């Protein structure tokens, strides 16, 4: 990982800690915090395998927190998408020779935008009730800023700027968002879609990443899985 990407990992861990503070379940809160630290340690050690293990567990813990109504769906989606982006960079068969930093920052392609962790807190999540971030921060643009300044979350609270934030969020689409939309379109087009169909249509993505996308689409209620993960298993849109 480059220094910029290491700082992005610190940014992600910072946000995970902030969101974890709103979780009432002590065990789940502590597990998310612990895995957030593991994420930083594995990135500093340049251990892609360990990072992917920790990130996979974090995705499941965050999804569990959402299902238990500890965090909002918006928070869950933003954090999980960011984790998917890191996994996309670190999976060797996908990384190839492209510049990994462009997954997070690309100013020439509108569909790839700096992720600022547009975290939305529900009424029960009172930790950040009085905090409003006034500036757009980017780890890549603010390399000289301290992590606790450059890693600020955009807290989506009830105020006069809600409409503007909603409009801005439509333009903040991560690489994972774009990829999942393409997978969803393929499933809808096929009617009955096997994993081999997706692998043939998206040769640049690994089977592991495509399964991540399918899992996410299932959680969002957009597709369903028919079968027990054997060769006859297929997916169809809802």
From TrEMBL:
Keywords, ordered alphabetically: Transcription, Transcription regulation
Protein name (Swiss-Prot/TrEMBL): HTH deoR-type domain-containing protein
Signal peptide: none
Domain HTH deoR-type: 179-226
Source taxonomy: Bacteria, Candidatus Liptoniibacteriota
Keyword Transcription regulation recorded: yes
Organism: Candidatus Liptonbacteria bacterium CG11_big_fil_rev_8_21_14_0_20_35_14
Residue ranges of the region described as Disordered: 150-171
Keyword Transcription regulation carried by entry: yes
InterPro entries in alphabetical order: DeoR_HTH (IPR001034)
Residue ranges, compositional bias (Acidic residues): 157-168
One Gene Ontology term of the molecular function aspect: DNA-binding transcription factor activity
